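job 3f2a | input accepted
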Amino acid sequence: MTPERDLTNLEGKVITITGGSRGLGKEMALAFARCGATIVIASRKKENCESLAAFLTESIGVQARGVECHVGNWEQCDALFKTVYDTYGKCDVLVNNAGMSPLYESLTSVSEELFDKVLNVNLRGPFRLSSTFGEQMVKDGGGSIINISSVAAAQPSPHEAPYGAAKAGLHSLTKSFSRAYAPKVRVNCIMPGPFLTDISNAWSEATHDSLKALPLKRGGQPSEIVGAALYFASEASSFTTGSVLKIDGGLIAAPG
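job 3f2a | predicted structure (256 res):
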């Protein structure tokens, strides 16, 4: 095997992905599994996690496990950490992918409950998981943490104010954790733009039409997140930490 091909060989690696049963999380789980990794899929719906885990084992032949975890709940984050290490004894890569951005009618209609829920899932959960997994990774000699944010962190609309604020906070966490756990643990962030996951089925026609204004003239296919995920999960990014990588079809670079 050439050095270049070896970069994406993840055999022997354990990767934990929150929000891993659908959308971009599922695409990343499939890619990591095809590269030989053992996968822990976590989300609120245990049956969806277990179904994907079974598929990975039966179709690709890797070890996989589904775990119920609401990352907005501190205790469930700690339980996920315990399950991963009790089962596999290590975690090489943590992907903080779980997120939510509920719709609301106006900024004044955002309740305290909704605001807290959005911040808990998108920011507090990744903080706690990065703390526990990252500290153990340091003790074990190395690892990689990958945060999944959003272009809303840099260019939020009025319809995603709490979400954008939480994702901007995730960028800050990426930088602080990259320093806290250096040099053994790399911490980076992927900032996706509009991807055509199942969530996009609920977008309005106007939203879909607006994608034509992007420099690449379209939304992203879920599989197009894979290259960045493999880069940060593997030794291909061995000299990269504290970085935020845009994958947005040119949205932030576009005028307007």
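job 3f2a | Residues 69 and 75 are 9 Å apart (CA to CA).
job 3f2a | closed
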